[in-house]
Amino acid sequence: MRSVKVSVAREKLEQDILAVAKRLFAQRGYGGVSLDHIAKAVGASKQNLLYYFPSKEELYRRVLHGVLDVWLSYMDALSQRPDDPEQAIREYIAGKLRFSREHPDDSRVYANEVISGAPIFATEIAERVIPALQADVAIFNRWAERGLCRQVDGRHLMVLLWASTQVYADWSSQISLVLGKKELGDDDFAAAEALIVDMVLRTVLLAPQRPEAPV
Fold this sequence. Notes:
Elements: H1 2-28, H2 35-42, H3 46-52, H4 56-73, H5 77-80, H6 85-102, H7 104-115, H8 122-145, H9 154-170, H10 172-179, H11 186-204
Helix pairs in contact: 1-2, 1-4, 1-7, 2-3, 4-7, 6-9, 6-11, 7-9, 9-11
């Protein structure tokens, strides 16, 4: 029984370390955070922290792997509706905005890494994000071949979707200032979703065919 309690306590401490590290990396970037900062915020000794994560880089990589696990889980919407591009796009945009709403630190950690040139996590991004992107681009190409949507450059479309949804996490302070609010609320995310969906559907979907006028 004691070993089970010890195991549970260790698991909790490990998760606490990851959560605190993610928050600090999101706020300050990789270079602005030390293991001492993280240990102090967790309420543990640096030696105890090193028992779980032998270096700051290893801890940072674990955080980013967790971020990608969550982020990529929101990228499945397009493949779930192979015959319904409109609903697939609606669900994809809703999911990405939900990610920004519910996991802002995840988005910011990833953004900080990419903005700095991905010095630590470039290989993992290439191995995990690029295949997911290529799969989504292939879906748009199949839709276009079947006449379900316009022919678009899926790469740039996906970049546009990422930028227009993740900005509500990465630049939430600026958006709040622009909107005259202390923080973004559900109504702001709903308004963003409605606008982004409308703009993208107008670009991607084929216009309904008008019936031919009688001769």
